[in-house]
Amino acid sequence: MMKKEITAQEVVRKFNIPYHTLNYYTAMGLLQVLAKSGNQRMYEEKEVRSRLRRINALSKEGYPLHLIRKKIVGI
């Protein structure tokens, strides 16, 4: 089964997150860019959904982003 790739703009719209949050999560390594198509960053939709759910759940438990990053990315 092929991975469904979506643009950064689609991530923002579909998952209702601000663009600056997407950029920040990407810079932190919480979300990964699959590829670039021209000047568009492409993300894997299922992976973004899964990661955002985990980020939100850990955030609600009181974890700060630097610890969430350690739990998700292992760095």
Short description, anyone?
With 75 residues, the chain is of the alpha+beta class. The chain is built from 4 helices and 3 strands.
Top keywords for this entry?
3-stranded antiparallel sheet; globular; 3 strands; about 80 residues; Multidrug-efflux Transporter Regulator, Chain: A, Domain 2; about 55% helix; single chain; alpha+beta
General description of the model:
- The chain is α+β, with helices and mostly antiparallel strands.
- The protein has a single domain (5-73), classed as Multidrug-efflux Transporter Regulator, Chain: A, Domain 2.
- Helix content is 57%, strand content 15%.
- It is built from four helices and three strands; from the N terminus they run E-H-H-E-E-H-H.
- The protein has helices at residues 8-15, 19-28, 45-60, 65-73, and strands at 5-7, 35-37, 40-44.
- 17% of the residues are buried.
- The mean pLDDT is 93.
Order of helices and strands: EHHEEHH
Count of all domains: 1
Using the CA coordinates, give the radius of gyration. 12 Å
From the N-terminal CA to the C-terminal CA, the straight-line distance is 30 Å
- Largest sheet properties: 3 strands, antiparallel
| Beta-strand segment tally | 3
Approximately how much helix is present in the residues? 55-70%
Relative strand content? 5-15%
CATH class: Mainly Alpha
Give a topology summary.
Layout: E1 5-7, H1 8-15, H2 19-28, E2 35-37, E3 40-44, H3 45-60, H4 65-73
Antiparallel strand pairs: 1-3, 2-3
